[in-house]
Task: structure prediction
Amino acid sequence: MNKRGPEKMLWLLCLAFIAGTVTAQTTTRHAFTIQQAVDYARKNNLQVKNALLNIQSQQQTNREITASALPAITGSVGMTDFIKIPTSLLPGEIFGQPAGTYIPVQFGTKYNSTANIQLQQMLFDGQVFIALQARSTSIQFQTKNLEVTEEAIKTNIYKIYYQLVLSKTQIDLLDANIARLQKLDHDANELYKNGFAEKLDLDKISVQLSNLQTEKIKALNSISIGYLGLKTLIGMPVKDTLVLVDKISEEQVREDFSNDTAYQYADRKDFQYVSLAKKLNEFNIKRYQLSYIPVLSLTGSYSKNAQRNKFDFFGKGDWFTTSYVGLNLAIPIFDGFARSARVSRSRIELKATENQLDNLKLTIDGEVEQSKINFKSSLATMSFQKKNMQLAEAVYHQTKKKYEAGTGSNTEITAAQTDLITAQTNYISALYSAIIAKVDYQKATGKL
Result:
């Protein structure tokens, strides 16, 4: 007997155990309600992360704007070694020489050292003043952009989540139909054995059963792809396991629907976003208009200077002090009409934003009316398809009883089965359409 056989098997079992342990450690199971899926996306979706980074970037921009209104203090230290001291020319008349003659003279010392502290303080700048006022609006603008991004992602999450929830019902119906056909196939075989059915009847049932099993495989593949799509949307690793907790019913779908068409444009996050853009455009116009006003600033300096013929700055010796305080008024006179062009461009941008707001109002009106019509129609279709499915079930059961009693034909039972499957498929489709219509209605009215 080969003794290495059991040892090899033991090693394989150990490796399988280790591999299973590693997989268990790296795979996380998530059981999410619809709200938990939305909350997870707020933390992990890439677009949301970038929108959050935009807010942080604006916060740093605001800090930079604030710094423009605060004093700027700079310090400097310098040392110069004159390898050759500069030469100056003095008029010869000073020393009794003829006019027009010059005497070269060297002034200064070989080593010069300076330490300086300088202060710059802006006292008034119209553009900085407006920029300080616009800081809060800029943060609101980026925050609203985040909310618009989150709402778009939330809309897609709702649609995919509930589609996957409904897919469970779809699979249950397929399983029930498969079980029903398997029972029918068994009964038909018994009838065939006793000479009460034809081989053609068995073949027809087998074809139907095979078609249903194929539909189930396709449905399961579609569901797997849907889960991958939902994971990608919320920012979840593909290897993690996602379980959907919420259920959906007709009563839930019918909630929140009202024939009342009252709504506010300001309830829409995209309208709020464009409104803030308009406000920022107005700040831009003010900023460029105030650029015509002079800029007043304060400057001050304090310095120490020492001159030596020997490099002994750290020893004894005189350090001479220089200090001053000054005001500077920069008066804009002519810039080639650049400021005028900036103001005009800002007015054009403001007008474009106002046009965008007007068009958005029309769009919102259209979306609300269209989504309301679709929602109402979807609810009616859902009710009709449910009744149709219930009727198809009753017809099937009656036909099956007739078939089992020997008073019905295989053609009748096959047709009843086909009608039932069609009615069930139509009901699932109508229920999902109603869910989509509800999500669109809530988004259009700003209530999602």
Summary: The chain has a mean pLDDT of 87.
